[in-house]
Known about the structure:
Largest sheet: 6 strands, mixed
Bound molecules: adenosine-5'-triphosphate
Amino acid sequence: EAGRAVAESSGLCVRRGRIQALRGVDVAVRPGEVVAVMGRNGAGKSTLLGSFAGLHAPGGGSVRVGDAVPHRTRPQQLVRRVGLVPQEPRDLLYADTVAAECAAADADAQVPPGTCRALVDDLLPGVAGRAHPRDLSEGQRLSLALAIVLTARPPLILLDEPTRGLDYAAKSRLVAQLRALAGGGHAVVLATHDVELAAEVAHRVVIMAEGEIVADAPTAEVVVSSPAFAPQVAKV
Ligand code: ATP
């Protein structure tokens, strides 16, 4: 099935409270592909990621990840298909220590003990297992959340604003990680305002406005041609 989308939505409509956050979104993501979803605050980027992660039930249209309908899939099955690193990973870190966080991730993913810890040692060298997750820096929390997500080896990885608060070195490490993930066949979707990040790692850029996709094209084309991109590019 070479080239078959890892995940796709078709005519996807999602309400958040009174707001129609997504209005007929068609998007597909393929293995090994990095897609940057861009657009103003409130455009619907987080809602699109959340829809792939099973957080929102569509009001219309459809969404699938592999053969699964995310919001109707049990969490233990879903972690094998899709992992979301949210905008503030702190909200997803409950345990008192990194080690306990890792043990929970292993249990959730039903993988051998030590699987998550090995990923943490790789992504966060030098962070002791007894460290309190809330004492980590923003970049360290991002790496921990990514390790937790990767524990189940999901084919689809979603990152919401992954470079927010990261310094240059942490950003470079993230870029290297994302390239390695894509090289390993994972599909990566990142919601971001960071034009540099998109230009460095994304194969494709999807631009959203008011719940719709207004551009979806190879990164190089979007960077030069889209008016939505122009003011951001001017800053780089
Ligand atoms: P940002 O860059 O600020 O994260 P975004 O592009 O990710 O923005 P979303 O967070 O998906 O946009 O929001 C889409 C719309 O849904 C916005 O109008 C937002 O105000 C609304 N919205 C988001 N969360 C909720 C909620 N919990 N309840 C009601 N409306 C919400």
